[in-house]
Design a protein that fits this description.
4 copies of one chain form a homotetramer. By secondary structure, the first copy, chain A, is of the alpha/beta class. Chain A has helices at residues 16-28, 44-52, 61-66, 82-91, 106-119, 133-143, 172-187, 281-284, 286-302, 310-329, and strands spanning 7-12, 32-38, 56-58, 72-75, 95-98, 123-125, 150-158, 194-202, 217-224, 229-235, 243-250, 253-258, 266-269, 272-275, 333-334. In chain A, helix 4 (82-91) runs parallel beside helix 5 and helix 5 packs antiparallel against helix 10. Chains A, B, C, D: GO terms for molecular function: nucleotide binding; oxidoreductase activity.
């Protein structure tokens, strides 16, 4: 596939994440052109496109997919629509970058993966932490054997505040938040597959929404087939900021990742030592978001396979679904059929 | 009870922990006298006593318990003997400090607690981390509401290297190592009781001993009756040193504790930044070990009730036993009958 | 002055710093266009322009200054040429951003400042550390009184390795390196002026170049008119990386700034704790370089006065010249005529 | 010299520092006996001795020196009396430990050193930071070549609050506070001697006492004969606590020392990250104070020469006197005759 230069990309979804990706595509990536934006909300695509200059706006996603001037799409719509859009975009012959989670059922995931394979288009999934310099360097070191065999892992995500509980579907904490941690744990335990999952979860931040199935606090333990034991932890309201950390303990050492501290100013006064916390995810992972789209566009341009694949998305989803089942049944759940 | 001055204390057990306590009693605590040491191993009590000067040595523990010149005992024998010695010492009218675990069955624990109550003697248990300045200050802050209601807790213990696997009884990781973490989690979630436990454990450090029931790596998750979810984690071989850390995340903030770093020298060179790790537990908790014995002797002297009680030991044991049952059955286990 | 959109900017100097600014102007700043590049070195402007796409290239700086399509210039040539170019650019009616040092004599500085004033064009100087989030926040806090009156200040610069000693003019360490620290100390002690300077300097990195007047290690102490005592320190070869730090101690507290650590990955192994150092200045101050050009272009666009002025450059230069005189005479030197 | 066991030591001076040493001698050092205390203040020696139990009390220092039951003395009186007491104690045949500064003139220093040499008694000086684990390890690493040749050094002391200004003699900041830093800089630049000193000093904390010669803020720069440039910095009122830090930058790396942080509890809340500061010197250097007396008593017992000598005290004093002269004359001052 020969690609045009600059590469014309269509963005699907002009919400918070979509707007951020739009800016990256329009301004931060050389060799890329944000050619079109589609969003069913009236005026959303148009408004975003106008702010960034010279972008076609669609309210019908199908029109963007039918646009022959678009070579690749970035999907940043609500989670439940992802898999269907991956399928549609792949069938339309577009290279596909899809925000996490790529799918919310294994069937959906399989169809999306198959569609991309059938169409021969690259499919990359938005596990942006893999592109964060700290988590990335950890992966490299672990692969190089720097800490021996992983034995205990931890990944956690704490958001500064919950989204409007009325708009969060049930199981969001597993399917949209912890999905990152499940991917991180899989990625930082290279060559191993999760085999068993146990989860505790509760509505501690907003107990008033518990009867609607909204859970905002969870601890998931995972046993991998190389013996490693892992913990994933999430909470929707960390009053101190946005907290994403990782830890991998192995037979030959330990690595820790994560940066709660914002900036490098430290204050010392009568009350002791003080420093600021990171408060917003697009700040914490700003460079990682840019790096993952840069990597995606390079895959499109060079024909190289993406480094974060539909199979990776499926693996993380398998753990999320097992965790949901564990919460539902109250017992541990086997995870099946995940290739390491 | 009027006590003599200096307070005459008898030490039972002249092994590693006993030797450390002996030195504290002989040299670091004003108002205290190490009056006698008992250890069945020939020469052990005598050798230790000679090094410290002027201490009676017994090879029969019963003789020490019968010695009317002894007002209080410090029990630092192998774990399986603790509860029986607590009972015997209490019946002999001695104030009792007992190393953790105080007991390895709930029945034993109940008998030990009852014996001390019947005899009207103080009974304190060696959860030394409660006396570490960081963990202690965390407890004070949490009680004062500084982080609101605890929602997610973590406590971990990683030893630098395993004891001789041939000499470790099965379930040691739960009964002797994680017992500290179970107590920490209970202590840092004041007023709450554990209700459900799930554990994964394995022999990752010494897989060759797995068929003898020796487990060296474990992750335990605990649900408390205030909704808080906790994780306790242990491993017997951290190549970088002795790693004890805690984290309590609450509705109004987070506290972290633990000090892997030894000292305050930092080196910067072509390979980056380097610092030393703490490598030995008596170094990490040196001051805490002294503080707990100081607190114990003050209880004896003043009649004040100990701040780490037999009930605390029983609560931690309940979690340990539930974790063992969880590993055995493969499912979550309810914890019953623990007063907050 | 009404400005065109996007603002057409001409870059003078296509060396290391110029290339970095070129990329910022071409790609990272919305509302800006890198319209032309001038560099006397054959092919330098053309090569850089081609890499970035669609930029006019000049080998005669005068041609760029005569280009009516250029509204503002960024001067990134060798230090000794700065002041003359500021004058020429101002006379040509261009808004001027000039890399530090703006001048190497006070006369030059005065002429450059006067030229910009006469022409009514904004003149901004490249003290990029003022745009670093940590140093910037420190300034804000100090102005707000957070640490009371500054009493002891420190600023240091250590470069990873020296430039080719054969190509460094004498006094470079004061005029081009420590000039940053002199500005930082002035900026973090708001409202105060330096009154006396004493300097020690030596050739410790390359003693073989000492007889050619090349100094690579210096410590400068400065007394300010509010009593504050400050230290500026520089060295040309820090084997561990690029080290820029600041410290301000005041009557009500202390602030520290500076980030030797690169990233947030920490490794723990048998040799202790390890982390990486920052090794390259454009990495450390990447965002600050972008922010200062964004600020400059906003000044051009809005007519607002620059926040880092020719007077700031002159103040830092006064301290540099006093330090040079101190090294030459071996005694302390009074600094005259600097407005706070 | 054969010494008695436990070694009978006499303490001279029952003030703040003396009381601390008394407790160390009485309780923390095996093989040592606090045999007598002398203090001219009525009741001071008696009160302290009674608290510690069984110690002879003198109000005449001469009586203690004449006591044949005393083998060694610890001098912890006001600074101006030290040298005379060292002389007297040495003449009385006692091994001598003297708090810093050992002397406040070079003549005094020489007489004290000579007296100890003539009497053949060990003379150790209280530069306790050499016994702090961090500073000690830095010294070892530097001697082993870990950072190559030292090029830039820094040592600072900031006290939490000034002593009663009415009771501080002039030049205290140099003779009693910075004397520590001068020793640290000398010690961390092994084999090198200070050759030139320049000092700025002022009364910024208590300007109302400036006309009485009380200075509370100082920055001293020192040039060593190996080219290294050093800064010593002091202030009498750090509102955040007790701040002692060091930094040595060399041709092959850098070391930093110093621990402003108290404990290992970190709090994260809506206002960011918070931790406590060290606030009191006997806390910060508690272990170092004990270690130096342990080292001294070992010297007495074994006949080994002390590791912190009268010559070390003289070297630090030379720098202090040069700094005082620099403040007086306003210019740099040569330091003469210091053996490395």
């Amino acid at each position: 596939m020969t690609t045009r230069h600059p590469l014309p990309i269509g963005l699907i979804g002009a919400g918070r994440m979509g707007s951020f990706h739009a800016e990256t595509l329009a301004r931060r990536l050389p060799g890329v052109r944000l050619a079109a934006i589609a969003d069913p909300a009236p005026g959303a695509a148009r408004g975003l496109g106008d702010r960034l200059g010279g972008t076609t706006a669609y309210t019908e996603i199908a029109e963007l997919l039918a646009d022959p001037g678009i070579e690749a799409v970035v999907i940043a719509t609500p989670a439940r629509t992802h898999a269907g859009l991956v399928e549609a975009a792949a069938r339309a012959g577009k290279a596909v970058y899809c925000e996490k989670p790529m799918a919310v059922t294994l069937d959906e995931a399989d169809r999306a993966i198959a569609a991309a394979a059938d169409a021969g288009v690259p499919l990359q999934v938005g596990f942006n932490r893999r592109y964060d310099t700290g988590f990335h360097a950890a992966h490299e070191k672990i692969r190089a054997g720097a800490i021996g065999t992983p034995q205990l892992l931890r990944s956690l995500t704490r958001d500064p505040k919950p989204a409007d509980p009325g708009r969060i579907p049930p199981w969001t904490i597993f399917l949209e938040t912890l999905i990152h941690d499940f991917d991180t744990l899989h990625h930082l335990n290279p060559g191993a597959a999760p085999v068993e999952v146990f989860a505790f979860a509760d509505a501690l931040v907003r107990p008033d929404f518990k009867d609607r199935g909204l859970l905002d606090t969870a601890v998931v333990t995972i046993r991998f087939d190389n013996g490693a034991l892992a913990t994933a932890e999430a909470n929707f309201q960390a009053v101190y900021g946005y907290d994403v950390r990782g830890e991998v303990f192995g037979s030959a050492g330990m690595l820790t990742m994560g940066d709660i501290r914002r900036g490098h100013l430290t204050a010392y006064g009568p009350d002791g030592i003080a420093a600021d916390c990171v408060t917003y995810d697009q700040d914490l992972f700003h460079d990682a978001y840019v790096a993952e789209l840069a990597d995606f566009t390079e895959c499109v341009r060079t024909g190289r396979a993406p480094s974060v694949t539909g199979q990776d998305a499926r693996a993380a989803l398998s753990v999320a679904l097992a965790a949901i089942e564990s919460v539902t049944t109250g017992g541990p759940v086997r995870v099946g059929g995940i290739a390491a």
